[in-house]
Design a protein that fits this description.
Rossmann fold; 10 helices; 2 domains; binds adenosine-5'-triphosphate; ABC transporter domain-containing protein; 36% helix; nucleotide-binding; 4-stranded antiparallel β-sheet; ABC_transporter_ATP-binding; antibiotic resistance; ATP-binding; 6-stranded mixed β-sheet
């Protein structure tokens, strides 16, 4: 997508002064950040920090109280249909018809996006996510990990410029988690950009190019994991919680506090 000057902006996602409210509760309180093209960007925060609310506003699922969201230079509020064709979102298990087979579901969503993919093409994509032996299996008889792989396949079937993933590795075993990160990195290698939330600081430190830490609806800091560690390693709050070499988790707990959130 090009802007008025005929050039692509460096940001695939531009979130400006985003405010999300539920009644009198402010869940996201003036959050601003950009995701660059070709970047894996992690949104980190304790329970209730406002991560899912931020993603929901980016997806156009809820109307922000204030602020703007531009996906690939398209304002999600002004042109939601066009903006959404540039977005890939992992659907919840309840979104899929349980009686349909993997192949039927993939064909259904390819059709919904108006894609012309042959039967063999669909089978190839299913094989790519390691479900080649399950083509004819009904959704309801898939394991949690298999369901998760199918939902990732559907999220990227239209080759979106930006993939949004809300806690993609939660509930997965170590093998499935490792495979998922490899897939996410392959998507980035193929030119995609990824915005994800995770509670695994170890994974964020290993995989994300940059991370933002949010708490109580406000963005505290954005940088590369190494940059955050370098900036905050001598902060007494971080030194206090570190048990050895300072990690991203130490920085996260140092900046957001040790108390458990509701
Ligand atoms: N539908 C809703 N109605 C009212 N309050 C909500 C609603 N959804 C979220 N909230 C509140 O908004 C705040 C932010 O919630 P959100 O789900 O965005 O946080 P989160 O960072 O994704 O948390 P978690 O890590 O626990 O998933 C919380 O205080 C939550 O209770």
């Amino acid at each position: 997508m090009t802007n008025d000057a005929g050039t692509s902006s460096a940001a695939i996602l531009d979130v400006e002064q985003l405010v999300v409210t539920y009644g009198t509760r402010t869940a996201v309180d003036g959050v601003t950040f950009q995701v660059k093209r070709g970047e894996i960007f992690g949104l980190l925060g304790p329970n209730g920090a406002g991560k899912t609310s931020t993603l929901s506003a980016i997806e156009g699922l809820l109307k922000p109280h204030a602020g703007t969201v531009r996906v690939d230079d398209i304002d999600i509020q002004h042109d939601p249909i066009e903006a959404k064709t540039h977005l890939g979102v992992q659907l919840q298990a309840s979104s899929f018809q349980s009686e349909l087979t993997i192949e039927e579901i993939a064909r259904l969503y390819a059709g919904l996006y108006g894609l012309r993919i042959t039967k063999n093409g669909i089978a190839d994509r299913i094989r790519d996510v390691g479900l080649g032996d399950e083509l004819g299996k009904r959704y309801k008889s898939l394991s949690g990990g298999q369901q998760q792989r199918l939902s990732l396949l559907i999220a990227v079937i239209h080759q979106p410029a930006l993939l949004l993933l809300d806690e993609p590795t939660s509930g997965l075993d170590p093998q499935s988690r490792r495979q998922l990160w490899t897939r996410i990195e392959n998507l980035r290698t193929g030119g995609g950009s990824i915005l994800l939330t995770t509670h695994s600081m170890e994974e964020a430190q290993a995989v994300c190019d940059r991370v933002a830490i949010i708490d109580h609806g406000k963005l505290i800091t954005v940088d590369t994991p190494a940059g955050l560690i370098a900036t905050h390693r001598d902060d007494p709050r971080v030194v206090n919680v570190a048990r050895g070499e300072v990690t991203l988790e130490d920085v996260f707990i140092g900046l957001t506090g040790s108390e458990i959130r509701g």
